[in-house]
Amino acid sequence: xxxxxxxxxxxxxxxxxxxxxxxxxxxxxxxxxxxxxxxxxxxxxxxxxxxxxxxxxxxxxxxxxxxxxxxxxxxxxxxxxxxxxxxxxxxxxxxxxxxxxxxxxxxxxxxxxxxxxxxxxxxxxxxxxxxxxxxxxxxxxxxxxxxxxxxxxxxxxxxxxxxxxxxxxxxxxxxxxxxxxxxxxxxxxxxxxxxxxxxxxxxxxxxxxxxxxxxxxxxxxxxxxxxxxxxxxxxxxxxxxxxxxxxxxxxxxxxxxxxxxxxxxxxxxxxxxxxxxxxxxxxxxxxxxxxxxxxxxxxxxxxxxxxxxxxxxxxxxxxxxxxxxxxxxxxxxxxxxxxxxxxxxxxxxxxxxxxxxxxxxxxxxxxxxxxxxxxxxxxxxxxxxxxxxxxxxxxxxxxxxxxxxxxxxxxxxxxxxxxxxxxxxxxxxxxxxxxxxxxxxxxxxxxxxxxxxxxxxxxxxxxxxxxxxxxxxxxxxxxxxxxxxxxxxx
Length: 490
Prior knowledge:
Layout: E1 6-15, H1 27-42, E2 53-57, H2 66-74, E3 80-84, H3 90-102, E4 108-116, H4 117-126, E5 143-145, H5 154-159, H6 164-178, H7 183-202, H8 215-219, E6 227-229, E7 232-233, E8 243-252, H9 253-258, E9 268-275, H10 291-304, E10 313-315, H11 321-331, H12 344-347, H13 355-368, E11 374-381, E12 386-393, E13 402-405, H14 407-413, E14 424-437, E15 440-449, E16 455-460, H15 463-468, E17 478-482, E18 485-488
């Protein structure tokens, strides 16, 4: 086996929950602590000073070059730094790290990410300062990864679809309609999925919410669980107001062996496949489909010589239930299988643009506890806009690490639909959601199919129609559109 192959030798997650934000660590400190623990987990704190690269996914914070702050903390003076902006898949960051080691461009790569939104939230509540570290002017990373297009279209923003929960709720309802599932049965299924994740989080010491909420508590409003966008309550959504960070240490097999690191703890990246075809929700041919996952999954599994049914452990990206459900269908995974090792982003915690690193830290521990096993960790960017799949195993790989881009294949299957910016006439509902005010249905937002193949967006502030959409299926129903307003036809 070539000694240039990449190995994940150390992984750690950290969490804090301080009521006084003045005593709480800021995000960069949490990231540094996570990396320090990851190096200890690897069995060699000296790895940190040997880092050739430090890469960080962008968060809510505004550090100019977070990788440089981390490199300085650990004495890695020669490390190149990188930031992946929001809209870049976290699997892209991981795949690039493994690829660079395999190609000999780097020997030790550190990857870290973190947030301290709870600290920030508490500071606002108490009216105190929670400052972040500052860097000298003109500092910038050596490399910045940016998405090639916008996640949201101007039309979606204008009509009120700028919030992720609104878009994901539309996808969720479209999936229900495509599968001919009743509204109440669908709400039961979605709540059951979340309850199974909550049970996993209850047993995860790194989870933010270990209360183990049941399906009845999740399904509808009550007890502080307010409705957000039908069918989603707060307990269906990612919890990003958390103080969490993760650190990962990857190096070459040669270096790991030279340092005498315990090989029974090595976790090997087998393959990563990303789909970067960016199509706004309103333009997708089928709102409930995410073909990039099918292509990414097939490519990664084929390269690794695995089948999805043979994978022992899964962590499907879980910002909202439909993200999990759509992935399961594209990857041909039974939804009743365990789909998370963390408890998912509602309960384990979903720090912005960093959850995949949190998930991988947990997956490493799970794989080590099951020698010879393989785990899949997926990623999403935007509104199910981009899709990534990564495979990891404690069993040494039979083929070199593969980093694949399946954007072209995805684009051939997801040619965008044209948008009618102004339209008056008949339309049919492709997807919708209902928004709430004071716990009452107040407004419905529709994505509509037109007879000429175009799409249109429309809204209705008729509370009666909005309430109907929480009881009856509106997908497939005929509407009349006029100046962006919708009324039921007939």
